[in-house]
Specification:
The chain is mainly beta and 509 residues long. It has helices spanning 2-19, 385-395, 411-426, 444-464; strands at residues 23-28, 35-39, 42-69, 78-91, 102-103, 108-124, 129-156, 163-183, 186-192, 200-230, 235-237, 244-247, 255-256, 263-275, 280-291, 331-342, 348-370, 399-401, 431-437, 472-476, 496-502.
Length: 509
């Protein structure tokens, strides 16, 4: 009977082992047999063994961690502030024609130095395309040259009361004309860069309503020789009373204001953007602008130098105001230098709630007697410290979330996976499992397919980033395994893939 009881006790051990999956049973045999019996040349040793039952139960505590989300600095879409200075040549954009009473050398207008200051805001709605609006201040400068002989026929000599022809011979006449405007440029902008380029191509074109704020002319030098021809005497007088040589640059009408209309300028820029910092780029290029409409608002009249002596002439108000002046289209072209500042959002700091899981262990010791020695030993794997550190670090951001019914990686998911890649590069002997999951919505077969594709998308990304394909194992669970952190049962938190670090393939379940 005693042998039957011992046999029953021994048979009950494997039954106990299979009854609870969270219980581990370990036999510890006695060092010496309690009693030895010899039956028909057989030796039966009776041992008293210790059966240790280790019962584990899961528990958890609420924790918080800080999550930092960095803006993508390579994304060219967004807000820009642009500031430029331009230097080159330009002019008031008109020419001086030859009047009917003129003879001799032709008049001319030459361009001069021009400058531009510009600041504006731009928004790029596409990595390559954007719109901008701002303010510029610019000047257009020309030098007018008057030459030749100007005739006023059949005039009355106030002293002799005789009729004569008055001639004014102009030499060395140089006049500076300047138009300062404030413009409001509105532009379409384009930027482009290949991956292997250091610089970025930049171009813009648009229109700018421009308003004159300061317009003036100034005679820098000019000499007029007045003479009169008297037909009655067939005589020319040149050095008496109103006749003779007169320097004009010091006369009151040698300087004054010009009548200039508002303009609509068209403009274009083209150049290169050279990176200085993550947010600032240097622009080097060229620019051009020209007024589309006639800017000359003068009541144009024949050239003259009216004063008390020459009352029969028109007043002088600059070459721009004479009937010799053609339509005026102020223009400028030159080189442009400036900076472009790209707004990049500050990192976002979020506090994430999660549960820190642990296991409570209870130990039960039972003494059993058995007939022979059976030793069951299970060696727990010893995880190296560097593998455990990698596993702990990856666990902080190992959940990769997906949009509804999608297995496409989001920008946020790629940032998390980039951090995992850096951990795996430091620990080349660590392997990973990728478990794909789906929410409870939809058909089971579709969710299994979706979960596998989510895990596979993560695996492909890691492999493309340099993680060896033999270190990555993919498992799809469908919607059978809910998110342990999803205490509020929110469906978006179940659409995920989880990355776990393991030491070797035998640990992959």
């Amino acid at each position: 009977m005693r042998h039957q009881w011992i046999l029953a006790a021994a048979l009950s051990v494997p039954l106990a082992l299979s009854a609870q999956s969270d219980t581990v049973h370990i036999f510890r045999p006695a060092q010496q047999p309690d009693r030895i019996e010899v039956r028909e040349r057989s030796t039966i040793s009776y041992y008293t063994d210790t059966l240790i039952s280790v019962v584990s139960s899961p528990d958890s505590t609420a924790q918080q961690r800080e999550e930092v989300i960095y803006a993508d600095s390579t994304d060219r879409k967004g807000h820009y502030i642009q500031a430029y200075a331009g230097f080159g040549g330009g002019g008031t954009g008109y020419r001086l024609n030859t009047p009917a009473n003129h003879s001799g050398e032709a008049n001319s207008v030459n361009g001069s130095f021009s400058a531009l200051l510009q600041i504006q805001y731009a928004y790029f709605f596409h990595p390559n395309w954007g719109v901008g609006a701002g303010l510029w201040f610019t000047n257009y400068t020309s030098h007018a040259h008057l030459r030749g002989n100007y005739l006023w026929a059949d005039q009355t000599d106030t002293d002799l009361e005789l009729h004569y022809d008055h001639t004014a011979s102009v030499t060395r006449w140089r006049e500076r004309e300047t138009i300062h405007t404030v413009g409001i440029p509105v532009s379409l902008q384009f930027q482009y860069k290949k991956d292997d380029w250091k610089a970025r191509i930049f171009a813009s074109a648009g229109v700018a309503p421009a308003f004159p704020v300061l317009t003036k002319y100034r005679v820098l030098s000019g000499e007029i020789e007045h003479s009169g021809y008297y037909p009655a005497w067939d005589l020319t007088l040149d050095k008496m009373h109103e006749f003779g040589t007169k320097r004009y640059e010091n006369e009151p009408s040698a300087k004054g204001q010009m009548a200039v209309r508002p303009q609509v300028a068209v403009f274009a820029d083209f150049g290169a953007l050279l990176p200085l910092t993550e947010q600032i780029e240097l622009f080097l290029g060229g620019y051009f602008n020209v007024a589309a409409n006639d800017a000359n608002g003068s009541e144009r009249h024949p050239v003259g130098w009216k004063d008390e002596t020459f009352s029969f002439m028109d007043p002088y108000e600059g070459a721009y105001a004479t009937d010799m002046a053609s339509a005026s289209h102020p223009w400028e072209a030159g080189v442009k230098i400036g900076i472009q500042w790209h707004h990049i959002a500050a990192p976002k700091h979020n506090m994430i709630d999660y549960y820190d899981y642990f296991t409570r262990v209870d130990t039960t010791v039972t003494t059993l007697a058995r007939q022979d020695t059976v030793i069951t030993a299970q060696e727990e794997p010893v995880i190296p410290a560097h593998i455990q550190e990698a596993a702990d670090e990856v666990e902080k951001f190992n959940k990769i979330y997906f949009d509804y019914d999608s297995y496409v990686l989001t920008k946020e998911a790629k940032k998390y996976l980039s951090s995992i890649v850096s951990v795996l590069n430091r620990v080349p002997d660590a392997m990973i499992t990728i478990d794909g999951h789906a929410s409870s919505e939809g058909l089971r077969s579709h969710n299994e397919w979706l979960a596998f594709n989510r895990a596979n998308a993560v695996a492909n990304y890691l492999i493309n980033q340099g993680v060896g394909y033999d270190r990555v194992f993919v498992i799809g669970h469908g919607s059978l395994v809910p998110n342990e952190e999803n205490v509020n049962h929110e469906l978006p938190l179940d659409r995920r893939a989880e990355v776990k670090v393991v030491q070797k393939q035998s640990e992959i379940q």
